[in-house]
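User: I'm curious whether this sequence folds into something compact or stays loose and floppy. Could you predict its structure so I can see for myself?
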Amino acid sequence: MPKPQETAVYTHGHHPSVLRSHTWRTAANSAPYLLDRLQPHMRILDVGCGPGTITADFAALVPDGHVTGVDRAPEILERARATAAGRGLANVDFAVADVHALDYPDGTFCVVHAHQVLQHVGDPVRALREMRRVTRPNGFVAVRDSDYAAMTWYPASAGMDAWLDLYRRVARANGGEPDAGRRLKSWALRAGFTDITATSGTWTFSTPGERRWWSDLWAERTVASAYAAQATGGGHATDAQLRAVSAAWREWGKQPDGWFSVLHGEILCRKEA
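Assistant: Here's the prediction. I'll summarize afterward.
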């Protein structure tokens, strides 16, 4: 086995088909396991904040505290700043950062949060150790990641099976782990945490509008995003194969009995005093 990379290529990129799903995310639909731990005075670090919708929700939930959103991609932070400004939030800022080497002193934050991040890094244990370092004693590290192998849908589709196989191969070639959800507790133990609450959550797409939205963004992402370029550039698929997968997504989205569920692993890790 090759030595894991300390960093990895971000599989999705920031194509509009990707941002449509990222800007749909809220604290309620993406971090429900954390919300009852938040208090108005808290200082929060949101790692891999992307366009900042979850970050802005956190800022609204801690009016007497402060939220910092960080991401490796400077261009997406402009979108995040606009999100916060549009909501009139003054207790939030954004910065470029690498989760493997956060530029903050030990014990800076009450909560360090990462949503759909560890599946895209080459050394998730090191990332968790760094998140733990910048967390205050008795503070929390909160992580949620999807688990691609556990995603399931109906009706059956050979084209969708091909999509799942292809995505997992591309993600791993990029240095990530697409089945991260099931590994979060193991990674947290290796990072030194001993007080870990491990749970799971789902997104489900079943109504006509939900199916159309979910299938359209994946159909477009399959042929037009950074992921598509990585699939063909890495020799994992041909253009014709990507078009076939894209068509399978659209066909699934038209099925009146269509249903799709995304399983997420979740960990809430308390840093001991």
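Summary: The longest helix spans residues 208-224. Confidence is low (pLDDT under 50) at residues 1-5.
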